[in-house]
Structure to design on (426 residues):
């Protein structure tokens, strides 16, 4: 009789809710070079499939390595509880994303208390911090991913970046870059606090910067955030330029391994409440091995900021960031975007090219922003700053090559001197 009785659920069973894990892991996972859909089933879904006749099939995958129909999980996972399958999947992602390499570094760093270490967050921590990645917490979106505002239980506010893709062949580079960036301690570089490797694509956690991007202030009427006022006077713009130059100079020559940002632009420059500039978003950046000055790499960056020399040669050097800085300097002086739509010609004009032609033809005043064009004494100083921008983005019309006559370190010193000069004038 006891065998015929219905099995009563135990207390532990009753406490376990049905986890609809298909919603959590419904994206693609690379396996064997192909993209397959992960399908971790909740108990209710398992019962539904059983009633409809779906089952574990293993013929075409070879016996025990079969998988549940519609799932990329191995057959041996199908008998496990949803919670165990979730743990195994997280572990699989952790290993794919270089977690073991990072753990080895953290173990070694324990004996070096002076070195700041990157923190490893769990996926649950980040989901709770962002209210399960609610749209109301989105700070910004781009081609590579979405940035969310997160609040931890300690009330610490952070910025959490979920990327769309991850190059598995560059996982070692990703981990090493994270280690280097976590040790960067510069007031004009956004601090990388940690990462989560339990998801298909790694998630990065940065310090939270409060006042939006430089681009949103320069081009407020074009920005999604219309409430941001244009409050950047000439002196403030030059201070920001000096801070950007200082941050890039630091990344190029003062970190344990030189870092080339590769995507320096106004939307990747954040401003805090004091309008202090912070270079952000190192998703495209590359480490330059010690003893090398350049890398041959695939084209990556933003049109309008891309160094023409890099476009032609695919040889990445710190001059690529220098060129982008020159474009930002032109933006700060003109208030224009790197690509300008010409109403008359019904075509798009490159700001760098247009800026250089205006300087050469001595009609700079035509394109200066209203908050930059001032009395004659200050205008002469602005012309000197414009000359620096031209020096960084100038293209020889005959040879077709670019000349970056300087470094970000020299630019920082020059702009700081200009700021002092303007203070004396005004």
């Amino acid at each position: 009789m006891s065998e015929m009785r219905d099995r009563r659920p135990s207390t532990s069973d009753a406490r376990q809710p049905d986890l609809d894990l298909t919603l959590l892991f419904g994206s693609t996972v690379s396996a064997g070079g192909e993209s397959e859909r992960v399908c971790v089933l909740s108990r209710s879904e398992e019962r539904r499939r059983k009633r409809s006749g779906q089952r574990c099939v293993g013929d075409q995958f070879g016996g025990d390595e079969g998988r549940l129909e519609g799932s990329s999980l191995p057959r041996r996972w199908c008998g496990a509880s949803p919670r165990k399958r979730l743990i195994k999947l997280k572990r699989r992602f952790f290993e794919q994303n270089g977690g073991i390499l990072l753990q080895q570094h953290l173990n070694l760093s324990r004996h070096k208390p002076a070195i700041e270490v990157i923190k490893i967050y769990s996926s649950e921590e980040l989901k709770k911090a962002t209210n399960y990645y609610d749209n109301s917490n989105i700070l910004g979106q781009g081609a590579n991913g979405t940035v969310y505002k997160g609040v931890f239980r300690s009330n610490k506010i952070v910025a959490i970046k979920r990327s769309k893709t991850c190059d598995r062949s560059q996982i070692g580079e990703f981990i090493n870059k994270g280690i280097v960036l976590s040790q960067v301690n510069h007031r004009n570089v956004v601090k990388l606090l940690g990462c989560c490797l339990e998801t298909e694509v790694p998630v990065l956690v940065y310090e939270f910067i409060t006042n939006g991007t430089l681009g949103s202030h320069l081009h407020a009427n074009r920005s999604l955030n219309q409430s941001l006022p244009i409050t950047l006077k000439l002196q403030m713009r030059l201070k920001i330029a000096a801070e950007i130059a200082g941050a890039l100079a630091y990344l190029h020559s003062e970190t344990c391994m030189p870092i080339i940002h590769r995507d320096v632009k106004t939307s990747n420059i954040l401003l805090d409440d004091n309008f202090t500039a912070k270079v952000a978003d190192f998703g495209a950046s590359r480490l330059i091995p010690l003893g090398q000055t350049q890398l041959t790499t695939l084209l990556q960056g933003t049109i309008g900021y891309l160094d023409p020399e890099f476009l032609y040669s695919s040889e990445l050097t710190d001059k690529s960031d220098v060129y982008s800085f020159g474009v930002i300097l032109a933006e700060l002086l003109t208030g224009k975007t790197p690509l300008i739509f010409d109403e008359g010609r019904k075509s798009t004009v490159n700001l760098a090219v247009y800026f250089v032609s205006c300087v050469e033809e001595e009609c700079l005043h035509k394109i200066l922003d209203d908050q930059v064009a001032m009395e004659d004494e200050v205008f002469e100083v602005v012309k000197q700053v414009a000359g620096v921008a031209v020096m960084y983005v100038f293209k020889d019309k005959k040879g077709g090559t670019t000349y970056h006559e300087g470094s970000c370190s020299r630019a920082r010193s020059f702009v700081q001197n200009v700021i002092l000069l303007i203070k004396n004038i005004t």
Remarks:
- DSSP finds 15 helices and 18 strands in the chain.
